[in-house]
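Notebook entry, structure prediction.
Reason for the run: the old model in the group folder had no record of what sequence produced it. Starting over properly, with the input documented here first.
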Amino acid sequence: MIIYTCITNNYCELPEIEDLGHQYICFHDGTVEPKSPWELRDIKYKHDNPVVLSRHPKILFHEYFDEPCVYVDASRLHLINNQEFFSLSEKILRKKKLFILEHPEQHNYFEECLEYYIRSWVQEDKIIDQTEYLKQQEYDFLNHETIFACILWRNPTEDAIRWSNIWWKLYEKLSG
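New structure, fully documented this time:
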């Protein structure tokens, strides 16, 4: 099983974990110190903003892997160092094309936009542009669901790749 993460701008330190027989990959921008059993790989994308840079392998997993994989946010890597996590991950990847956790704080679309604005993650004009774009796409704002994308289980199926490409397009619109 492939477990991967991404660290840019020295976001956090890569933890040393016990090798439980899986492939551990960290995409980086040169700010990461090698640690066992992690394999360091370069990001196949260039951007001045390290946050945007780190999102490329996270969102567009299929540009890096052609087999099932599990993305784990670097701040959550402490959760994976046990056999229970790997057993659960294997079950998920056998049954699902794509599995994403539901965010524990389900925000409606407006609340989520407001949080992004208040935290200065996204400028007001970008939120307005994104909302207009989603309206044109006939997005169902009333049934908006907030995902908890700190751990993502994905198989490189047509549906999962299409979903990831849409996510990237939306992310680029907000971060560009």
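Summary: The chain has a mean pLDDT of 91.
The old model has been moved to the deprecated folder.
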